[in-house]
């Protein structure tokens, strides 16, 4: 019997490690302290799922694809994603008590650091059932430092819920995440949370969604009361009033009353709701021809006669095609509005088979999945979250990793139910699985059933396009698109307490890198020290913290430094020869090349490579690759300070090769020659320029502006948002070290800020000289 095969065991959350980062800060000292105090509650016990839920597993192990929803929750820091997720798990029966972020006992924020800091650092996947639907929910972090984590999740999601603080409307990070969701064409629903909060305004929040997100909000609900008076909502589609009232001393929001809105029970609200419904019908008819035909044909005289059952599918169509976004409201903290949100998720967001996945035709029924997250569990080793796109995944089976070109064995397969992992015998397409035993798989890898299956799919893909692919192109075409990994902007050295501990540190860094591709680790060629490169101060701080806590290695961090870039202001030309005899063989190459400035749209360390006409035609593929490798390696270390070079084009003017010269010698000579040419040009240091958004109450605005002026900041605009001012501008990263502490002091802990890389800009001569002197130890 299926049930007997289910072995249930508890995951000790503190042993499960994981990862993420970014740079946005909230001044929530009180909350952090509360989190620390609540350490005693960290081991909240979820040892048994309610009996009914265990039974329901029989049906939900492999539900029909149409009944699956892979959903992400995304938002700005503090909008209430974690609180909303907790309520969702509670109402769907997967937890027995309500977790509280402020008490540090939520299910999804399970890393110790998260509980202490009261923030969501890494996204945790949670599976649950709601009214016959299987929902896989990913709680994503709201900090800019963790943008990559958000994007990685968006890649595997079919729909998302954007949670807003109704008193703040659209905030900085929401914009970033919204753009990411646009990029991945993820249909969305908006949830205006915190309707109970002082300053909450449904209309202002809607206006800001319309203006800032440039989208069309579909008002499916109206709030009944705002701020302290918030009691419930009107379902505009069904014209029902939904009220949460405490039942027998319990205020957990499980019970609520849904009743038709009538002239008798609330005439004013009825008029308001009728207007909202008519506007909604017109708006949807404008966006959907099928619905427009229906309305024009049967209901043109009286929209009131249009039944909810006819409106729902039209709303679903415009949501799925991202022509508009349904908006709902509530207060997760006060336990209002979450169940209708769950209904909307199942009703309006797509199932896996409604999303376009072109490559699926090549895999047919063979297994194809994307590893979108790796966690390290001390007992069970790496736990890999896999979104299965086609075929079936089974424990005790081998799978082939296309990126790593290796075959591995899955020992067990788990479903992540709240904070328990349930062992399952198989999982089919559309689901999100947790695979145990994959030791080589990293975040972003594509997993298939075997190498032969990958090749068969490659042949189908090749045939489809009517051309023969080169071997590596075949493989590439079968990879599920990964996530763009942003360049780290901070770095610092990291050392173990003794040389003997270095292997342990290396092992820890290896594991952390598999989890988090935005963490880069390199060896300083001059000092031999290990260097950590990350996305923000918080990123590096958390990595260091995890190495200590989870891997037991005491570490010493060097001072945090900025990742500058270098470029040139005019062209430079150089010639170089490398002539070596190894054994009996002579390797000799002479190169002449020119470097010149070449502005690019994006700040990328990707060289533009050109060839003089006569060279290109005669050049063998292997030598072309050797030349380009040489140029790329020269780009990694600029002539001024050894930072990567950008916005420089290289033209290979001439190349003389002695027959039999190895490609390694060619690469080395080209690399040296590029360095020589760069030195001949006028060089320039580029510094990271950050987009900054500070939200502050009016009283503190002037001191914050004065401080930014001293930081070489430039202010683009100051917006008003409720009682707050939002300062939007840009500032060099070098001036933002320790800004969270300064901001906390300047604003008595009330301000928040978001920082995100804009681009790299030239330093002025004075600052550049000061930097060069500092780096050479002269100042
Ligand atoms: N008034 C009010 N406060 C809320 C509501 N929902 C959450 N909060 C509070 O807002 C704060 C942030 O809530 P979280 O759920 O941690 O928000 P988050 O979006 O997960 O935050 P990060 O993980 O740090 O990005 C906490 O103090 C919550 O108690 C709500 O509906 N109303």
From TrEMBL:
The protein's matches in SUPFAM superfamilies, at most eight in alphabetical order, are given as: EF-G C-terminal domain-like (SSF54980), P-loop containing nucleoside triphosphate hydrolases (SSF52540), Ribosomal protein S5 domain 2-like (SSF54211), Translation proteins (SSF50447)
Q: Where is the signal peptide?
A: none
Q: Which reaction does it catalyse?
A: GTP + H2O = GDP + phosphate + H(+)
Question: Tr-type G domain: from which residue to which, for each copy?
Answer: 66-353
Q: Which residues bind GTP?
A: 75-82, 139-143, 193-196
Stated name of the protein? Ribosome-releasing factor 2, mitochondrial
GO BP terms: namely: mitochondrial translation; ribosome disassembly
InterPro entries found in the cross-reference section: EFG2 (IPR030851), EFG_II (IPR041095), EFG_III (IPR009022), EFG_III/V (IPR035647), EFG_V (IPR035649), EFG_V-like (IPR000640), EFTu-like_2 (IPR004161), G_TR_CS (IPR031157)
Please name the source species.
Answer: Phascolarctos cinereus
State its location(s): Mitochondrion
What function does this protein fulfil?
Mitochondrial GTPase that mediates the disassembly of ribosomes from messenger RNA at the termination of mitochondrial protein biosynthesis. Acts in collaboration with MRRF. GTP hydrolysis follows the ribosome disassembly and probably occurs on the ribosome large subunit. Not involved in the GTP-dependent ribosomal translocation step during translation elongation.
Mostly located where? mitochondrion
Q: Which GO terms describe its molecular function?
A: GTP binding; GTPase activity
Q: Which CDD domains match?
A: EF-G (cd01886), EFG_III (cd16262), EFG_mtEFG_C (cd03713), mtEFG2_II_like (cd04092), mtEFG2_like_IV (cd01693)
Q: Which UniProt keywords apply?
A: GTP-binding, Hydrolase, Mitochondrion, Nucleotide-binding, Protein biosynthesis
Q: Which GO terms describe its cellular component?
A: mitochondrial matrix
Similarity-based family = Belongs to the TRAFAC class translation factor GTPase superfamily. Classic translation factor GTPase family. EF-G/EF-2 subfamily.
Gene it is expressed from? GFM2
